[in-house]
């Protein structure tokens, strides 16, 4: 890790003294590339925090065109980048705008939703009830499980979270049915179903294959591909028309169905990246989502496909 003193010196020279990258490089005997990397690291380490005093989003025109063209209630667009930070910030902005209007919110299994929740601050919503969309992923915690994300959001806004102690994908159909007979679990799912705000991620078939590789045999995803699956929301797979893909895997899922999710009033989807474009397109066109957070690359592709 870089010495924080060096990070502080470079940051002060750039942000306070107004020196260029080249001037700092000469002064500190560094390369210009090194200066650029140090400035980026200074922001990552919170040595530098930048506040933009404007309510205008970076992609305001694109957001308006996307919402109008696709009939969405609202859209938030982030710049496409190699990491998830930009999408997470846009997702956090969306959640902050939507939460005050909600009484109950249900959160899905998604790294994108996890990253968005991490950017939710400065809200106090003690009346809010937060539910996971279903069970979690077994093994080492990733922070992306619905209960983990729901708990993180509850801590951020001072609200109540309801647990759902079960795996999202059970060992087999019989195990799933047994879990669903538990009164406590059924009560939590009933609460999740009654939400007025749903926040979920989306995955393509290959994305899901990688995400579940340690727990679900690859042949299961081969079968889903043959059945026409193009994407999933919290392990509920859908085809090119947005309809449920009936499969042995679907019978193992402990969580809300696509039909139950579609019944929620506001359905916010957070997802970006070229590999998810088709799944997002289908989800939006079929009504699985009526609000969207995505990156500018996906947004342009969605508009071009109209």
TrEMBL record:
Entry-linked InterPro entries: NagB/RpiA_transferase-like (IPR037171), SorC_transcr_regulators (IPR051054), Sugar-bd_dom_put (IPR007324), WH-like_DNA-bd_sf (IPR036388)
Residues in Sugar-binding domain copies: 60-304
Entry keywords, A to Z: DNA-binding, Transcription, Transcription regulation
Keyword DNA-binding part of the UniProt annotation: yes
Pfam families referenced in this protein's UniProt entry, alphabetically: Sugar-bind
Recorded superkingdom: Bacteria
Family: Belongs to the SorC transcriptional regulatory family.
Protein name per Swiss-Prot or TrEMBL: Sugar-binding domain-containing protein
Species name: Brachybacterium huguangmaarense
